[in-house]
Amino acid sequence: MSTPALELNQVCKVFAKKERDKTKARFAPKKRKKVIALDDVSLSVNRREIFGVLGPNGSGKSTLIRLLSTLLIPDKGTIRVFGHDVEKEEFEVKRLINRVSVDAAFFKKFSPLENLTYAARLYGMPMREAREKMRQIMLRLGLKEETFNQPMEHMSRGMQQKVAVARGFLTSPTLLLLDEPTTGLDPHSKRDVQGFVRQIRAEHDATILLTTHDMEEADRLCDRIAIIDEGKIIALDTPKGLKGLVSKRNGHEPTLEDVFIELTGKKMEEKEVE
Amino acid sequence: MNTLIREMRGAVAFIERNINLIKRYWGWELVWLIYSLVNSLAVTYIGAGMERISGQSLDTQYLITYLLVGTLIWSYLSVIFYSISEMIAWERWEGTIEYTFMAPVSRLTHLVGTTLFAIVYGILRTLVILLIVASFFHLDLSGANLPGAVLLLLAGSVSFVGLGILAAVLPLLYPERGAQMTNAAAAILLLISGVYYPVEILPGWLQVIASASPATYVIRGMRACLLHGESTRALISTVLFLIGAGIAVIAMGLLIFQRVERYAKRAGRLKRSG
């Protein structure tokens, strides 16, 4: 049997948060409060799979992505990316992954080409190959050539997010971590990105882990989905299998949203933990 | 070989990024240059005015050169210090810290790229200030040992690279106030290193601390070279001491940085805005 693309075994992550005791004086020292971001999470993602993680904000999705990106160290448990331990073989893991986060983090005064050039050099790409690839990906994502040299700060949120997606794909990662990549995009741009995700999987043999709030997106793109709430995985199956957990509503097949509400008892409403 | 090429490309990423930052924030650079220039002129005019202030006959030319050497060397060393200490602060301001830290590039490469940029930028910036300030005062450097001064300056840069790495730890540890803390560290170095006055006039306990500052030896040696024409042979022991101390400070800086990076990953302090 081949090594899974991703393997999490009993992973826990707890953050300490300083909070003021409202019953005490204003300048009294703040108390440390423990916030459990991930609680005993185990899962395995197969090669070439598009694996979705659904959950409200504060459920632990971003912590999971940060752990896989080597930006956090787990308190307990192990994480392996293509057999490499994220803590002990950090450098090998970094070479295999890339990430698109919900907040398009760029040098805002740089142009898309300058930002992507920085990324290409960080990942050790030869520049001739990288320049050609940057243009191809940005055009494929629907960005116009005249925007390539304009400062990012003059671009709309949607366009910035497309550049973020281009940066994630540029290095041809074997494991691509997409943290709500279509949040803030208009329906047309959303379709561009979703089409590109499928194309990347088909052409580049990539494994994709996608966190999203968008149930339709998860349903359309993902081979399997984990529903996460308060740091715990409460269900994991194919979209069809998850829908099978819930009975029909008014004679209609249940949607993923129905499944989510049934299993968590809440809507996709937000509360920030991290 | 492949790894070396990758790392070289990574180092170029940081050099190019810093050049682009200067191009995009040229207004800031201009303001900072004017501030440094006016500061150098103001300090040097104190020397020019000492005869009138004290009402006594003094060697004004010597005083001017004494202060000018201090202010120019400090200008250069502080550029090295700030450029390196800001390698993390910039990423925090722009929100790119997570992206850079998950890239497969070693922290040593990060440092090499930043240092190469800082030395070239520091030399060019100091030359511009020197040329302008020299037009205000009559400078007689006919008896100066210029090659010795350059040698000493480069040897002193090594220690400042190490101090810069130590200061870069602060924005990593303290997302909100770390950058301001590096200003405090630079101010302490300015106070104790004999930039504008001999270290010997400081209280005994401050003189002890001054002996731990590499800038003390650089500035003392530079004055010996430029004001008294001290031979390069006589400087060799100081140069060797500065290189040795510099290597030790860099090694210590890297070790501490590595540990603090690990702590930041445990505590979740690499988030984009802190």
Compact overview of the structure:
The complex is a heterodimer of chains A (274) and B (274). By secondary structure, chain A is an alpha/beta fold.
Number of helices of chain B: 10
* Second CATH tier, the architecture of chain A: 3-Layer(aba) Sandwich
Number of helices of chain A: 9
Helix % of chain A is 25-40%
Radius of gyration of chain A (Å): 20 Å
Q: Strand share of the residues of chain B?
A: under 5%
Amino- and carboxy-terminal Cα gap of chain B:
37 Å
Tertiary shape of chain A: globular
Q: Considering DSSP H and I runs of 4 or more, what fraction of the residues of chain B is helical? A: over 70%
Segments of chain B where pLDDT lies below 50 for 5+ residues? Answer: none
> What is the H level of CATH, i.e. the homologous superfamily of chain A?
P-loop containing nucleotide triphosphate hydrolases
Provide the structure class of chain A.
alpha/beta
| CATH overall fold name of chain A | Rossmann fold
CATH C-level label of chain A: Alpha Beta
The whole-angstrom Rg of chain B is 20 Å
Strand content of chain A: 25-35%
What number of domains of chain A? 1
Whole-number average pLDDT of chain A? Answer: 88
Helix/strand/pairing category of chain B: mainly alpha
What are the key terms here?
heterodimer; A: 274 residues; alpha/beta; Rossmann fold; six-stranded mixed beta sheet; four-stranded antiparallel beta sheet; 9 helices; 10 strands; B: 274 residues; mainly alpha; 81% helix; globular
